Amino acid sequence: MSVKPRIKLDKKEAKKGDIVEVKALVSHIMETGQRKDSKGNVIPRKILNKFTCTVNGKEVFSADFEPAVSANPYIQFKFRAQESGPVVLTWIDDDGSKIVGEEKITVN
Amino acid sequence: MGHIYNRRQTLAIGMAALAAATLPQSGGPAFAASSDTDELIKKFTGGKTPAEGRVRLDLPEIAENGNTVPMTVSVESPMTAQSYVSDVLVVADGNPRAGVVTFHFSPMSGVAEANTRIRLSKTQNVIAVAKMSDGAFFMATKEVKVTIGGCGG
Asked: Is the ipTM of this complex over 0.85?
């Protein structure tokens, strides 16, 4: 999939125990499954239903999205810096496909 | 000969029965609104009634565009391995389906705070319920007035 999420950490380097803020935005229609097309047929639901963030392979935060999450979902959360490593953000689509983005955190 | 109800009495009996059937059962949780909302909260808390407090729900008082309403939930907690917020359920009691989002935190979250943008179909209450690691539940409610509903089509 060619969708590239936009991810921003408020700091790239942190001291152990510092709080790091993550902001992420991804393009997605988030079709609710409640709308109808011009012929009156229900447009099938297609949303990103799960978001997960791991730091150095350990899950720090996740979220279950319902259709009431806006199109092009934005998510902002924090984690406590413990060790250097990749910050991996994963969104899972109703169709099973994944959108993955990655940043790095360096802990001094 | 037995008593025969006249038209007016029959109507009165019917109305009383209807009122009894539609009145909310007293003693239930205080969150009114759709049964969907109550069910989701009950499922989340395992039937416990959450206490008010510790949860902060930041939403605009008036949302001009219900398609994208910024929402921040934060919960007071030390977020240590001994005491942390594990999950926060967010529901909107006036949407066609009440579920909005569930956040899952861990001691590694450091701070129990998350922000996203949500759809609100009309003026309604948004409710956040937090589950603590010790099994306690806390909640906050905020009313949002919506000018243009966010469910399109």
From this structure: yes
CB-count exposure of residue A95 (10 Å: 0-12, 13-18, 19+):
exposed
C-alpha to C-alpha distance for A23 and A17, rounded to whole angstroms: 19
A71 contacts B124 by C-beta, under 8 angstroms: no
Q: What tokens were used for A10? A: 């408020």
pLDDT of B40-80, one tens digit each? 999 999 999 999 999 999 999 999 999 999 999 999 999 99
Distance, CA of A31 to CA of A33 (rounded, Å): 6
DSSP per-residue letters across chain B: ------HHHHHHHHHHHHHHHHSPPTTS-S--S-HHHHHHHHHHHTTPPPEE-SEEEE--SEEEETTSEEEEEEE----SSSS-EEEEEEEETTSSS-EEEEEEE-GGGSSEEEEEEE--SSSEEEEEEEEETTS-EEEEEEEEEEEE-S---
| CB-CB under 8 Å, B102 with A64 | yes
**A82 three-class SS:** coil
CB-CB contact of B68 with B119 (8 Å): yes
Q: Which residues of B touch A (CB under 8 A)?
A: 67-69, 72, 79, 92, 95-97, 99-111, 113-120, 150-153
